[in-house]
């Protein structure tokens, strides 16, 4: 825990240094594509003098000057499975983005979707040392949160205060400077499998780049696909990627829950490949051009030429109806949505005042998906596109770039996290061994 707290602090300092120099790269390591954006900062960005703790408002201060994507290699279920292949793919994307931007970048902020995320809600309470709330008081109340045993090899990816209460006045965004006696906080902590994070950091290092930040793609997608009212009143963002479907819930402009389902668009492609006995590339093409989840009377008559290059004329000239294709795709899509429904139920989503659900990611572009999702999830469902940011090309405004665009907003306006405050070392959790040693010294 200590190492992670220190490394996250170091990454924040590195990000500030990179932004002062003017350029930073954004890297979205997904199961189907690796995207790289190069951002240029114009110096108008205000570091931490924003309104409120972690205000997500405002997109000024940066411009996208380089964009590149490449097919992902060596990534399964959002985690790196073949280091060298992923390294090659990252190098390809970063070099192409640098070429377009005509700038060299040394620092990247990365996001990924897998690694078995788990959410925890923590709370802490302290008496104020003075009459007004200071930065030090916020550090003390965050360190007073009782952190559970996270399990072996788990790392904290996000630790964000989502609410403050000062003498029974709850719902405060930023209590600094206010008068009171007792300060309490609620904090959301997201942990992931430590090995997946270390592999990603190692892969970035092998590409001769410095990691200046790391985020969950569920969080990044929510920032870019949910409009401000949805973030405020309560909404879920479902990012349907290639290998993983990420789920995040936002309330009062803070992420309060995140999870992931280890299924995505690649599994649908695999089903088509097996059902029609065609290669994966052909199955992907058929899914993209002709796919859907709701069959109509017309679909029995719409013939799709499968095509192929096996040399067997009869085999290569096969056709299937669109209804047959939908019959292969729909069960898998239903299975993914049922899993998402189970995650939302576990999070208590039905108790939120607003229950808007936003579908984004490449898989959300399947025709008819929003109708099917509203039947299974039983809520208001809409398709979400990433917010417009300055300099973004038209090709990068599609739902499959939601997490990449969200990461740009995260880079420019990061929400305050646990490691942005000087927490006293002896108050940090995870120091049970240190406590034991000190107890021995004092008592023997």
Automatic annotation (TrEMBL):
Q: Where in the cell is it found?
A: Cell membrane
Q: How does this protein lie in the membrane?
A: Peripheral membrane protein
Q: Which residues form the SHS2 domain?
A: 24-225
Query: What is one process in the GO biological process aspect for this record?
Result: FtsZ-dependent cytokinesis
> Known SMART domains for this protein?
FtsA
Record Pfam families: FtsA (PF14450), SHS2_FTSA (PF02491)
Where is it mostly found?
membrane
Alphabetized InterPro entries for the sequence: ATPase_NBD, Cell_div_FtsA, FtsA/MreB, SHS2_FtsA
* GO cellular component terms listed in the entry, alphabetical order: cell division site; cytoplasmic side of plasma membrane
Q: Which UniProt keywords apply?
A: Cell cycle, Cell division, Cell membrane, Membrane
Record Gene3D superfamilies: 3.30.420.40
What is said about its interaction partners and assembly?
Self-interacts. Interacts with FtsZ.
Q: What does this protein's UniProt record list under function?
A: Cell division protein that is involved in the assembly of the Z ring. May serve as a membrane anchor for the Z ring.
HAMAP family in the record:
FtsA
**Which family, according to the similarity comment?**
Belongs to the FtsA/MreB family.
Q: Name it.
A: Cell division protein FtsA
Query: Organism, per UniProt?
Result: Roseivivax jejudonensis
Gene that this sequence comes from: ftsA
């Amino acid at each position: 825990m200590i190492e992670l707290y220190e490394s996250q602090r170091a990454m924040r300092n590195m990000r500030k240094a990179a932004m002062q120099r003017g350029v930073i790269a954004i890297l979205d390591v997904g199961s189907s594509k690796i995207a790289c954006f190069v951002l240029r900062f114009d110096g108008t960005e205000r570091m931490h003098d924003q309104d409120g703790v972690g205000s997500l408002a405002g997109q000024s201060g940066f411009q996208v000057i380089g964009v590149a994507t490449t097919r992902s290699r060596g990534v399964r279920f959002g985690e790196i499975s073949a280091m060298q292949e992923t390294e090659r793919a990252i190098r390809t994307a970063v070099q192409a983005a640098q070429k377009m931007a005509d700038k060299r970048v040394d620092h990247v902020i990365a996001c990924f979707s897998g690694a078995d995320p788990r959410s925890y809600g923590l709370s802490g309470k302290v008496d104020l040392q003075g009459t007004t709330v200071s930065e030090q008081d916020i550090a003390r109340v965050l360190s007073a949160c009782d952190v559970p045993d996270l399990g072996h090899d788990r790392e904290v990816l996000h630790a964000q205060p989502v609410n403050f209460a000062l003498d029974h006045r709850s719902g405060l965004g930023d209590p600094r400077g206010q008068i009171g006696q007792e300060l309490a906080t609620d904090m959301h902590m997201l942990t992931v499998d430590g090995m997946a994070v270390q592999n990603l950091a190692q892969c970035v290092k092998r590409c001769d780049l410095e990691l200046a930040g790391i985020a969950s793609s569920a969080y990044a997608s929510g920032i870019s696909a949910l409009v401000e009212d949805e973030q405020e009143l309560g909404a879920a963002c479902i990012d349907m990627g290639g290998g993983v479907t990420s789920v995040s819930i936002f309330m009062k402009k803070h992420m309060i829950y995140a999870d992931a389902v280890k299924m995505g668009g690649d599994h649908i492609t695999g089903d088509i490949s097996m059902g029609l006995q065609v290669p994966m590339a052909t199955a992907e093409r058929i899914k993209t051009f002709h796919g859907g989840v709701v069959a109509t009377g017309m679909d029995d008559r719409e013939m799709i030429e499968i095509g192929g290059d096996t040399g067997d004329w009869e085999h290569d000239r096969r056709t299937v109806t669109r209804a047959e294709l939908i019959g292969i795709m729909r069960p898998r899509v239903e299975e993914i949505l049922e899993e998402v429904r189970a995650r939302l139920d576990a999070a208590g989503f039905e108790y939120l005042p607003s229950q808007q659900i936003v579908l984004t990611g490449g898989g959300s572009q399947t025709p008819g998906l929003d109708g099917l999702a509203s039947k299974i999830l039983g809520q208001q469902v809409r398709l979400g596109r990433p917010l417009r940011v300055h300099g973004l090309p038209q090709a990068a405004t599609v739902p499959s770039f939601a997490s990449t665009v969200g990461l740009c907003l995260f880079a420019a306006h990061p929400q305050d996290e646990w490691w942005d405050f000087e927490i006293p070392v002896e108050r940090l959790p995870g120091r049970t061994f240190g406590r034991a040693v000190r107890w021995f010294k004092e008592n023997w």
